[in-house]
Protein: Galactokinase
Amino acid sequence: MHLTVEDVRSRFLKHFDGTPGSVYASPGRINIIGEHTDYNGGFVFPGAVKQGIIAEIKPNGTRKVRAYSIDLKDYVEFSLDDEKGPTATHFRFIFGICREMMKLGVPVEGFNTAFAGDVPLGAGMSSSAALESCFAFALNDLFGDNKIEKFQLALAGQATEHNYIGCNCGIMDQFASVFGKAGHIMRLDCRSLQYKYFPFDPKGYKLVLLNSLVKHELASSAYNDRRKSCENVVTAIKKYHPNVETLRDADYDMLEQVRGEVSAEDALRAKYVIGEKYRVMEVSVALEEGDYEEVGRKMYDTHHGLSKEYEVSCPELDFLNEVAKSCGVTGSRVMGGGFGGCTINLVREELYDNFITTAKNAYKEKFGKEPVVIDVVIGDGSRKLC
Structure:
């Protein structure tokens, strides 16, 4: 289902005073390449998608926020002067953004809002970042005269996750939601926060996610283990190369130099991260040249690294990757932190129908369920719709 302004407005008018407000939207995101690189000071390559959050918002002349979640059929009121805010997570995002925007000097006042989203849950497309970015952009427009720069809006969303949700996330999701640009993906340097748009208009190809419907409970502790592995290797390398701050600064020769001083597991994980650094740069060149076959090859290489070196895949994701390969799909890899979620696939249009049919049937035969197909179109970032 494609979410429309009319879907949101009809619920807004019903639940509030019958007069319209302003409507804003922010997208979810995909990431073409660059996984587990953010905390290693490296690069990511996200793009905004058509799916996202739409919210209608209207100042109400009080210090209270009155919010209705259309998807969850849930309503809450909270005061902007309350230190604790609501307990329900979906409303804490809005409370947190209000508080963070106020810290930035935006004189937020009370408002009525109804909001809904069509970002598939559990697909790793960052519906939470879309929600944060939508309200950050809206509050800046309604109360701040657009004085807050885009990067500050993204950082406000990240701070909301840290301070009100308890999730110590990076900046990629909020960055992609705020800065998205139709027909382009963005290379973000997670150390300097510099970014560059790259054209992404693969004529003759489709981009599609296959959601494995797998969510592994080990993801949090396993993530911490891998982060520690990276830090262990950096500590060893720094003895010989003091300027190395993260694995972004390391190369294969440095890794070989310390191989006898770190565990085999740590060395293998560092090998993946260093390789991913080079793959992101190679994809940058391929995109500028319009060489989507090369982009696809690097996607497969990344999947191999995530599965066999970083060990964050799972049998279901590896199976979908193998099906893609057998169907002649240009590129396929696990997207996101791993242990479940989606594969992202770059498919020639003439192969698309066969790939989807084959993947559904083969996956159902092996795992007893069909993967969920999510077609992806690269879209614009946070914006006012009307």
About this structure: Residues 5-202+380-384 form a domain with the Ribosomal Protein S5; domain 2 fold (CATH 3.30.230.10). The longest helix spans residues 264-288. The longest strand covers residues 46-59.
